[in-house]
Structures are given as structure tokens and as C-alpha cells.
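Course assignment 3, question 2. Fill in each field.
Student: A.L.
Task: Predict the tertiary structure for the chain below.
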Amino acid sequence: MGIIIKDKVFTIHTKNSTYQLKVDDKGVLLHTYYGRRTDETDYSYMIMAADVGFSGNIAAADNDRTYSLDYFPQEYPVLGSGDYRVNCLEMELGQGVKDCMLFYDSHKTYSGKYSLPGLPALFARENDNVETLEIVMKEDRENVYVHLLYGVFFEEDIITRAVFIENKSGKEIRVSRVMSFCVDFARGDYDLIHFHGRHANERNLERVPLFHGIFELRSTRGTSSHQHNPFVILADKNTNEEMGECYGAALVYSGGFHMQTEVDQLEHARLVMGIDDSELDWRIADGDIFTAPEVMLGYSPNGLSCLSHNYHDAVFHHLIRSVWKDRQRPVLVNNWEATYFDFNAEKLLAIAKQGAELGLDMLVLDDGWFGKRDSDYSGLGDWYVNEKKLGCTLKELVDKINNMGLSFGIWVEPEMISEDSDLYRAHPDWAFVVPNREPIRGRAQLVLDMTREDVVSYIEERLFALLDSANIQYIKWDMNRSLAAVYSAGLGKEHQGEVRHRFVLGLYRILEDLHTKYPELLIEGCSGGGGRFDMGMLYYTPQIWCSDNTDAIERLRIQYGTSFAYPMSSVSAHVSVCPNHQNGRVTPFKTRGICAMQGTFGYELDLSRMCDEDKMLAKEQVKTFKQHYRLFQFGDYYRIASPFENSDFTAWEYVAKDGREAYVAVVFTDVHGNPLPKTVRLKGLVADAVYKICRDGHVLESRTGAALMNAGLLLPIPETSYDSTAFYVSMEG
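Answer field:
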């Protein structure tokens, strides 16, 4: 059993972790332990009761000055309890002030996993060892109930947390902050690892020590954003890839978010995360419920690699639902960097013909196929095929591509609208624009109000018509601006504080309907590249375009940071032309291929213009990727050498779950005269097994797993700038 309850002490075990909370004699829900797996001891003995001074005492404490929620560890702290630290919940219950006090009401447990209506959440498969704990907290004076949900994934060392608020007070209440979880740690001397960036430079790793006071990350952009990812790690000072304790928290949500840590006066650390509360003002009518998104909490006693593997396995088995999770994804070519808006059927067919000769599986038609769309200043919203531009119908184009042996995919940006469009001229009120003000534009476009039923219906109508018009097996769902100056003409002024979250719910509704109506459809998420790379999108889209930056060397850092939480099979990566269109760098074609093979593999260039040497290399790359596909898709991913720490080379490894085979890739990021020997130590092999080592199709030698993991592999000397190499290692016998 993963959940053990005794005397109102709730102990949750996973394979390697224990999480404990307790209802004390005053009805307050305390957090008592989270860490390495232990027993069911009541760990509240570790809480110090003292008169700290200037820390208030709740009424239930009477005259006991040693009892204060200002420094006690709590499971779900609220504003109004005398706790001055960052909190999880702020409610206005009809008095005009934000005031709340929660006490334990009831609990229940059951096999399987809870679900969240309208929101993505992890799920249990048949015969999975998954349990749910639900604890109900009641507001002291009002019939308002806060339900705390815990999903226990025993094998993956993952505990999910979610919250919903139930109003039975007989009146409307208002919520201005709802975090999805809180964890109070007895120590404050952790490092925080987070992943920052900007467009075309996402998920850069930064490791900083916690400090006295509040550190926060947030996105107010309406998406999880390029700037900050809704995933963080707390790690011991000595924690590295292979050793040390660490905790992860990943929000399963695709809108704006807010994460805070605080080290308090007693040097305890608090971590909270939830939806962006900068403009939140949600009104809950009597009898209604507000549901906050889910968080995936992870723990590893054995370093960062173990934590990543736990997240990768949980995402793969319990979050991604697409049938493509278990299928070989198509190796595709996207025409965007090949043609941009300047294309017709003839150009597309030339690219497709070359792709078929190289062994590719799919052609994807990117932006510019619809309405009046020869630049990014017009056409969004008019999702009707521009047959004049193509020179044929979409079905005729797709049939010709299918006859070449390729499947077909297409780009869409359904959440957006151009002012120069038939849709905007007919329905200007469908866009987010504050009355009597000029709109805030991004990429010369506005955002459709997906809180509206008529807008959602229109988007679905056009998408369904598109997908029914031809044999389309893939769509790339893009979103190329942030939300700003948000106002819904479909909601009254008293509900404008609900718009941002309702927008995300509208997005999820459309994606859910697509998933239901077209279960065989492969959907790739995108938001200017990696601006919405989050757990929420992976529930609907099994892969996400990692970044608009296709430069292989910069992708090393982007993909490295992404790998800490997200499985590499969800990372869409392509080979592009050189000089690179984002930074002008020239990188060997071989290296571009090795970098792109870290994720779902493809090309982003005009195949018909490639030289013969590159065509030969591309054919070999496609062959290699397909040959080792199961290893790339289902193997454990190890970070061997970090691009943030090693200026000479970056290295990574895929290892089969049974340790029988591995693929090791190295990209040299600097070269030197009279170079020193360089080695990489492999991971995840069977120590006493003997492995055959191959490079470029040739067997080099055989070595034991112990030798390869402890002494390592000697790397070849790079022959040119940004050279690369790869080894395939397989168990003999």
C-alpha cells in the first residue's frame, strides 16, 4: 500500500520516497515530512513549538503563544491564518476583505487516479499501482470546502497534487489566488534549479542557492512562456547527476503560472506553484466548483538523472495519451525555412520527391497556405485553402504527395486573428481588445477570445473541415504571441479576472475534441518554438517544437535544459540549412543530424537544393534514426557532458531499459592545437556484460560495461569546428 492512515497521520509511500501530513489537535493540517523512504513514525515531533515573537496565534490556540502558523509547516497555507509567508489561497467571502481559515473536515482514499474536468492530468493504466487520497478542508465560518487531491504513482516516485474549491455558502465568493500545492521543508539550504530564456533561446539551466526572503518565477503572458518554464528542482548542495537528494515540481498547465520559494525566519523553506494570480479574480457562485491544475511532485535520493527518468517515465506512461506514443513517429520535412511564404504546389512537390528518395515519411506544409497570407500581416482566422496560390486543391496536392509514398501534415494557428482578415472584418469583437483602446499587437496579430462559445465553435468547424478535406495525418499547432491587455466582449466586467484561465480552458476543450474526433491524428505543439513546452500540452500533443532556433550548437543547450523534466521523444528537432537562418553559424551536416536525433527527427530546409554529399549523409541519417528508433523513443536518456559546464564538448546517451544497448553522441564545441585526450564515461550498462562498440558502421573493440562506465570511451580528435561523433554499443551474445 502506498497510503497509510493512522490517528489522522497520513503517510504516503512511493518506491523511494515518503510524504507525510497530519491533522493536529486543533484541526490544522500540518506537513511533517517529504524525502527518502522511511517508516510511518509521526514526524511532527520535529516541529518546534516556541514563542518566536511577533507571530500571531489562531483562536484555537487560546493563550498558547508557542502555537503559530507563522512558522509551523503547513500542507495548504491560506491568507487570514496569521501566516505571513507566501500562501496558497486568497479568498474574499463577502466581507470585502481576504480572510480565510481552513480546518480538517474529512478524507477518503481509493484505488486509481482522480481526474480533473476540463484540465489535463496524469492517469492510471489498467493494473497500475496508483492510489488517490482526498482530504477535505472546511472554512471555519462558511460552508466553503477545499479539496486536496493526491495521486500516488508508486513506481515512478511521483505524487500529483491538485485542488478544487467547492462553494456551498449560499452566496458568491471570490478567489484571487489558488496555488496547486505547497511543500514546507525543515531546511532552507537548498539550491534552486530553474530554466529561463527567451524566444529562440529557451530553457537555459540556472542553479542558485535559496536565500532569506522570496524568490519567484512567473509568466504573466497567458502561456507557460519562453522566459520561464513551469518546472523547478530543489537540490542539496552536493547533488549532481549521479548522487544527492532532489525534488521536482512540474505544473500540468499551459497558461501563465507563478512559482515562489521563501526561506523564513526559522530558515525553513517553502515552495508553492500554481496558475498566474496577477490578474485573477474568479467568482464562484453558490453550488459551483473551481478546479486548479495539477502539479507533479518528484523525488530522487540518487541525483538528477534518476529524477529525470522518473519524470520521463511518468509523462510517457501516464500523461501522453496519443496513439503515437507507441508508434514510430514520421521523419518529416517542413517547408518553412525552405520557402517561407513563397511556395506553390510545384515547389512543395519537388521537396516531397527528394524527401521520398531520401527515405523520409512526411511533408509538412507550414504557414501561408490559407486566405490572403503572403506575409505575417494578414490572413489569420481565414482557414480556407488558397487554391490560387497552390495551383490546385489541397486534396490534389496531398494525393500527389501520398502517391510518392509520403504522408502529409499542415500548420495551423487557430488561437490567432489578423486585423486584415475576413474573420476580423466580420467579427471584430472576437478578438481580445480593451474597449476604447488601441490593441496590443504581437507579430502583427491579435488573439481570439476562446472563452466564447461562438469562437470555439468556429475554430472547431474550420479545423474539422480542413482535416476532412484531405488525408492529413499531422498538424503543427502554433501560437505566436503572448496575451496582453486582455478583455472579453463576451463576459461582463465583473468576470474579466477570469478571462486568462478561461482562455486556457477553451484551448484544452478544442484539443480534447480534436483528440476524440481524430484519434489517429499526430499533433505537434508549438508556440514560436518552445513558448508553451509544458506538461499540459503533452497531454494533448505527444511532441512539441522545441525552439524556433534550429542552429545545432545552440540547440545543445536548449535540448539539455528541456531534458530535465520532459522525455526526449517529446522534443521535436530538425536539421536546417547553413549558414543558419537564426545566427548565421556554419555547422557540419553530420553534426546537425546528430543533434536533431536527440528528439523526434526531421528536416527544415529545401531538400531539392541539397548537394549530393549532403543528400548521401541525409539518407544515412534517416537510416540510422530508424534503425535505432526504439532506443531513442523508449530508452533512458542520460546527460553525459553539459554544454553549460563543458566548453569543449557536449555528450548524451540513450540506454535500453534492460541495458543491452546504448547510443552515445558527442558534439565538439571547441577545438585546440595539440589537443588533450578526451573521454566520456557511459551510464546505465550492465557491469559484468561485454559490449561491442561501433562507430560509423565499423566495429572498433569490445569492452565490459564496468570498463565503459568507470574508465570510459576515448573520443576521436575533432577534425573541424563543431565536429561530432556517435557510438552504438551493444551487448555481445
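Instructor remarks: The two ends are 40 Å apart (CA to CA). Residues 499-517 form the longest helix (19 residues).
Grade: pending
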